[in-house]
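Cast an eye over this sequence plus tokens and walk me through the fold:

***
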Amino acid sequence: MDWKKRTFAERFMWARKEKSLTQIAVAKKIGLTRNAISYWENGQNEAEGRNLERAAEALEVSKDWLDTGKGSPNDRLVFVSDHGTAEEKISTAISVSTSDAGIGEEHSTYHTTASANQMEEQIYLEKYRKLSPDDRTRLHAIIDALDSAMKTDANEKN
């Protein structure tokens, strides 16, 4: 789908429905009223500034994608396998995005936020609970590998 040809309203509504969220649920996450969300989805208004950032966070999509349609909704996810210290990788591992990450593909993707707030932690806990037993096993293996790499880094520093 060419997201650049879609309006903010279409991108916002698509992302909200992909997450199975109601307008009220998104409004609460962002700190707005349901009417504000309705205006966005009807094209009467668009999110700007901090509200745009909060909307992207609530819908777990890229702010740039939501605003302009450039890139992909998943652009806020990056591969961390070849950069960052083991400690940084471990700190991001709790923020693994399982809904779009493609666990089981060649690489796993991690959310770039190093320290998750309570809302993010709750979102990822809910995602973890939805994982199949096989995907949970894969995620555990990733975390174990990162933990091992962190221990290796610590030993090399000593």
User: Anything to note?
Assistant: The two ends are 51 Å apart (CA to CA). The chain has eight helices and two strands. Confidence is low (pLDDT under 50) at residues 77-83, 93-116. Strands lie at 77-78, 110-111.
